[in-house]
C-alpha cells in the first residue's frame, strides 16, 4: 500500500478536533511560561517580556474560546459543578467515558490554568508599577500563582497520561496533529 493510501486510510479513521490556533497556543504558552519561570531569578527584561507574551497568549485564547472552532469554545467543554463531580466520580471508579474534545476534568483544568496564568501575569505586572514596586506581599502572591501553575501542569500531564492509557489514545499526538480517532 502506498504512503498516500495509508495517509488517506488513517485520516478516514480520525477526525479534526484541535484547530491550529489551539495547538499553537498550547505549545506556545507551555514554552513561554516555562522560559518565564526559568528566568524568574533575575526578574529582568527577558522575564517581563515573556510574562507579557503569556498574558497576550491567554487573552487570545479567551477570545478564541468564544469565537473559535467547535471544540475550542468554552461553551462546549467547560463543565458545571455537577458534570465535573459526576465525571470525577466515574474517573476514580475507572468508568469515565471518552470525549472527542476535552473531558470535564480537562475543561476545568483549562479554566484553572487560564485563571492562574492571568493572576501570575497580573501580579508580575503590578510589581513593575510604582504602587507595588518592591511589595513583598504581591511578590509572594506572584510566586504562589506561578508555582500553582506548575502544580496544575503536573496534574494536567498526569491526566493526559491517564486518559491516553485508559482510552488507548495518543493525546499528545492529537495535540500535535489536531486529530483524534473517530470511535
Automatic annotation (TrEMBL):
Pfam families on file: Ni_hydr_CYTB
According to its UniProt entry, one GO biological process term is: respiratory electron transport chain
Any one annotated GO CC term: plasma membrane
Q: Which residues cross the membrane?
A: 20-37, 49-67, 105-126, 146-165
Could you cite one Gene Ontology molecular function of this protein?
A: heme binding
Per UniProt, residues of the Cytochrome b561 bacterial/Ni-hydrogenase domain are 17-178
Protein name as catalogued? Cytochrome B561
Which taxonomic lineage is given here? Bacteria, Pseudomonadati, Pseudomonadota, Betaproteobacteria, Burkholderiales
Amino acid at each position: 500500500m502506498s504512503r498516500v493510501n495509508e495517509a488517506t486510510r488513517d485520516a478516514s479513521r480520525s477526525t479534526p478536533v484541535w484547530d491550529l490556533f489551539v495547538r499553537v497556543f498550547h505549545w506556545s504558552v507551555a514554552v513561554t511560561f516555562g522560559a518565564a519561570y526559568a528566568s524568574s531569578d533575575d526578574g529582568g527584561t527577558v522575564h517581563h517580556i515573556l510574562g507579557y507574551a503569556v498574558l497576550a497568549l491567554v487573552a487570545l485564547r479567551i477570545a478564541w474560546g468564544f469565537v473559535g472552532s467547535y471544540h475550542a469554545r468554552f461553551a462546549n467543554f467547560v463543565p458545571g459543578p455537577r458534570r465535573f463531580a459526576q465525571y470525577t466520580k466515574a474517573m476514580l471508579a475507572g468508568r469515565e467515558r471518552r470525549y472527542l474534545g476535552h473531558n470535564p476534568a480537562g475543561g476545568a483544568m483549562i479554566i484553572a490554568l487560564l485563571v492562574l496564568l492571568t493572576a501570575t501575569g497580573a501580579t508580575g505586572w503590578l510589581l513593575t508599577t510604582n504602587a507595588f514596586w518592591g511589595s513583598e506581599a504581591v511578590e509572594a502572591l506572584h510566586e504562589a500563582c506561578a508555582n500553582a501553575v506548575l502544580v496544575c501542569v503536573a496534574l494536567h500531564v498526569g491526566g493526559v497520561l491517564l486518559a491516553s492509557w485508559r482510552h488507548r489514545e495518543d493525546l499528545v499526538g492529537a495535540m500535535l496533529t489536531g486529530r483524534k480517532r473517530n470511535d
